[in-house]
UniProtKB/TrEMBL annotation:
Residue stretches spanning the membrane: none
Record-given protein name: 1,4-alpha-glucan branching enzyme
Keyword set includes Hydrolase: no
Pathway in which the depicted protein is active: Glycan biosynthesis; glycogen biosynthesis
Top-level taxon: Bacteria
Family: Belongs to the glycosyl hydrolase 13 family. GlgB subfamily.
Annotated source species: Ligilactobacillus ruminis
UniProt entry keywords in alphabetical sequence: Carbohydrate metabolism, Glycogen biosynthesis, Glycogen metabolism, Glycosyltransferase, Transferase
Catalytic reaction(s) noted: Transfers a segment of a (1->4)-alpha-D-glucan chain to a primary hydroxy group in a similar glucan chain
Coiled coil regions, renumbered to chain: none
Amino acid sequence: MLAGTELLKAYQSFSAGENGHAFKFFGVHKEIRNGHEGYLFRLWAPHAQKVWLVGDFNDWQDTLPMQLDEHDIWTVFSPEAKLGQLYKYKIQQSTGRVVYKIDPYALRFEDRPGDAAVITEVPAYKWHDGLWRGRQKRSNYFERPMNIYEVHAGSWKRHADGSMENFDDLTKELIPYLKKMHYNYVEFMPLMEHPLDASWGYQLIGYFAFCSSYGTIEQFQRFVDACHQANIGVIVDWVPGHFCINDDALAYFDGTATYEYADHDRASNPEWGALNFDLGKPEVQSFLLSSAFYWIETFHLDGLRIDAVSNMIYLDYGGKPYQPNKYGGVQNLEGWHFLRKFNKTLKLAYPKVIMLAEESSAGTKVTGMLEENALGFDYKWNMGWMNDALNFFQMDPLFRGDHLDMLTFSWMYRMSENFILPLSHDEVVHGKKSLMNKMWGDRYRQFAQLRTLYAYQMTHPGKKLLFMGSEWGQYLEWRYYEGLPWEDLADELNHKMQYFTAQLNALYLNERALWEKDQQEDGLEVIDANNYAQTILSFIRHGKKKRDFLIVVLNLSSIEQKDFAIGVPYPGQYQVILNTEMQAFGGTWTKNIAPLTTKTGVYKNYDQRLELTVPAFGTLIIKPTKVNLRYKNHLTLEHKKLKKAGKVMQAKQ
């Protein structure tokens, strides 16, 4: 219970936009007053004329008027209020209009279609994840693997009667599946309370409330605890940009623009049918900062992913009308400053919590140090990579040779931000088709190319994310209102695709070359990015140690290439450790390529080469087994003469 000087400091920091624990005094809290145990309710509604607390404890009558103190905070104590009872605030707004409103700091809401808050206390949960948290504190996640499985909790799997699984169900089923598939992070679309499933959780009413449709606070705590014991990190989507427009929620809470911008154009978010937070208002900053702190502290989250950052930092987002900022530009200065302040504050408190941003423009540096004028996020979703890659794989292979830059352009800017390569839920809805169904050709060729797409994602610098169902090549688009079509796995190609994804994920986790130097220039070495005729890309991924490197060859055409030559850095023996066209994965190859030995001969910038067969629509990942790491690759004068004479070994044209 806060009192005296401590309470005054809480109010002052709240009104200054500096309070990350406003949930500890706003909302409802158990207290003892004059020997009576009950609950104290606090509400910020500075321009309301009158406020009453109504609920089960007073038959929803106007018997509990709240008092406005000198800090513009409404309070009332009720000894009749009991744990588990429902309540709302009846507000006479600044205009005189009377409306029933939710508690913005409520920890739980009743089951739909009801929308009253529930008197709730955070359980005193005993955690068992000390080993995980200790390892996280000692590790550098930039130099560790991050392979994220993106999940919508309401539709990963459902009960036979169509009802949603809760998080006890997901603890029993999802965590073993994550282990089987070799994912080391799971990211959930928003788990906060939202009234409409069709919003996928992105239009919130309860920024502190665990969604009642998904279970209880304790169930999600147990889930995260079990994930950590299984060495799986947990990330949750969080939406500080906009909120649900419902009249009984945050919208124009006290009759004025309380949480939203006063300027209608800035407040309006027509793309989502929502309202935008006023990110320059200190009390709103404290509200949002406290929401993030609550979720991190209550559930031991490993990361937050911020949706639609562009909406927060650009005034012209979505093409809506806007007034330029004071410098005549389109940058939302309040949003820009808030995100920097938010990341700084959060990182000071929780330096190992990973902050991810979904931001589609290149006009603002999103990741990196604040001193570099960045927003301070750890990772940015690489939307450009995603769009280019998916457009390329939908293209007829006859034309792909002229468009290899769609796959290699991201190599050019990969150091500009710390990237996550997402194949997310946004790409498998609204008529865009599933990932498998985007691929060119018949069903067999679609699976072959999907395997190569995933291999390209796993070997490209950057962390990884794949949306649920895509791991087995789901044919249908994602449907938020039903479970994934697990019956697909009865089909041989789907089953083998799932097995392939699991093996590729395991390879990624085990091969340091694929993640140790994601943010370093020498983590990627290009062998050949210009083989337009055969439409084959080849490159090397390097780890910290000289021996930790992998050679990647992607055949993006429908033609198998025999006796294909590529340059390699060291002479010796190599082994194909992944061939996407193996029969076990759904391909046609029954035997893998035999161990390879280098031959002397110039290829591009290399004077050692390998010759091998590259399957149509296939990817080969090659690892050194016994090579001379002391070898110095020099193009001799004789090589230069041969090159000038046109006799140097090159890729077949």
